[in-house]
Design a protein that fits this description.
By secondary structure, the chain is mainly α. The protein is built from ten helices and no strands. The protein folds into two domains: about 5-90, Rna Polymerase Sigma Factor, Chain: A (Orthogonal Bundle); about 100-205, Winged helix-like DNA-binding domain superfamily/Winged helix DNA-binding domain (Arc Repressor Mutant, subunit A, Orthogonal Bundle), CATH 1.10.10.10.
Length: about 210
């Protein structure tokens, strides 16, 4: 969407024009749903969070600074709404504090055929506390201190949950890779290459699949 059209829609939304709101919703549906899916366990929950997020967008859009990127503003609202939903509806499965949690490189999260849908499905299988911290740290780029403040936990718990999330993701990826190896071995195919990707690659996979 070109800037002129976007600003026209925003102006309409400021005036509470329903047509403009509907068009803005449709234009950024994929982008917003992509964020909410990462923080929730299924599409129904993601849709609920996204709709709550758009309600906030339409009620606060007059405060949007048009000198700044709209997507960044929208994305922050969707992330914050996901966190609000998490606090209100889900019980934190806190782990024991690990003030010196072992650092595990995101580069270990690897599989050469890993696609967006594969990674998203794995992230959605994580326990709620692990999934939220993983998203905030590995995707959004928040520090453990910031995450602790946002989720009302301490930094040790944030580090612990990230560590556990990475371990679980690694195991799921290895299990999926082993299943692929077994299927391809039985078919007489060679499947031995595993290519690591880092945190930036994870962001690329997620953000490139958000539409809008």
């Amino acid at each position: 969407m070109i800037e002129e059209d976007l600003h026209h829609l925003i102006s309409g939304c400021v005036k509470q024009d329903r047509k403009a709101q509907k068009m803005l919703y449709k234009a950024f549906y994929g982008f917003s749903m992509g964020i909410c899916l990462r923080y929730t366990g299924n599409r129904d929950e993601a849709a609920e969070v996204m709709n709550q997020g758009f309600f906030k967008v339409f009620t606060r859009i007059d405060s949007f600074d048009r000198e700044k990127p709209f997507k960044a503003w929208l994305g922050k609202i969707m992330v914050n709404t996901s966190i609000d939903f998490y606090r209100a509806n889900l019980k934190m499965a806190y782990t024991d504090d690990l003030e010196k949690a072992e650092h595990v490189s995101d580069g270990i999260l690897a599989d050469r055929n890993l696609r967006y849908d594969d990674l998203l499905a794995m992230v959605q299988k994580l326990p709620n506390a692990y999934r939220t911290v993983f998203n905030l740290f590995a995707i959004e780029g928040y520090s453990h201190e910031e995450i602790a403040d946002m989720l009302h936990i301490n930094t040790g718990t944030s580090k612990s949950n990230l560590h556990k999330a990475r371990q679980k993701l690694k195991q799921m990826i290895y299990d999926a890779d082993e299943q692929s190896n077994n299927r391809n071995y039985n078919s007489g195919m060679d499947y031995n290459h595993i290519v690591a990707f880092n945190g930036m690659d994870i962001k690329t996979i997620f953000f490139n699949n958000g539409r809008g």
